[in-house]
Amino acid sequence: MMNRFCLVFLSLFSFTVATAAEPVISEGNKSLPLPGESFKLDEHDAFVILPPNADANIPWIWYAPTLSGLPAKSEVWMFKHFLAKGIAIAGIDVGESFGSPQGRKIYTAFYDYLVKKRGFRKKPCLLARSRGGLMLYSWAVEHPQSVGGIAGIYPVCNIKSYPGIARAAGAYGLTPAQFELELSKYNPIDRLKPLANARVPLFHIHGDNDKVVPLEANSAELASRYKVFGGPVEIEVVTGQGHNMWKGWFESQRLTDFATACALGHPLEKRKAAARLER
């Protein structure tokens, strides 16, 4: 009798824990540059922009940072191209968490919700704009098997470069001195090996005159380290451009084609072969 009681109790306890872990989805009012769905996941603003006739096994682009005013009209050209290929775009606002454990936890809840509840594919392509790189890379290095590829527009990859140790430390619950000592545990450029082992392809476009997110300390350093691990990476350096709203960042055919191929699950080798044929 006691054993049966324990089993019933454990079953009820397990059900309660599982239920408590479910995210709370509520109505949102986030403004989007294209028609889409705005909602809140555990009180964090989130969005989904679906292609026509999306039902199940939906390929998707994970956009960051989904802060106030982002994504913006600057992304419309890319987004329309993704939608035309049957690819959804989605994102969630984790605030200025700088890739911290709390921000990564929210990202995991968002990913699980889309994949398990909404029929999204298991391997999105991550699209990192500026500091969105710090957020997405910090999540990706811990979930390499859940990433189809990473595309970046002057993305932050190095906490020490931006926002800097002093500013980021608070988001990690550490003092600047503590954070500096433990930086390699959190900094994306120090944690790339799992992504390389999973053969996750990376493609960034970055200006050589970027004063906010310097090329050498971010995309160039990331590429150098990724190659050491044998990971597939390509950096397109744009001469004379900085951290700005130049149209070419957001209407890059190469970056859009790369993200499309990764979201659809096309192997990197096939993508390059197709590009050669098009020429």
Automatic annotation (TrEMBL):
Record protein name field: Alpha/beta hydrolase family protein
Keywords carried by this UniProt record: Hydrolase, Signal
Source taxon at top rank: Bacteria
Organism encoding this protein: Gimesia aquarii
Keyword Signal in annotation: yes
Domain Peptidase S9 prolyl oligopeptidase catalytic, chain residue ranges per copy: 125-252
Any GO BP: proteolysis
Signal peptide location: 1-20
MF GO annotations: serine-type peptidase activity
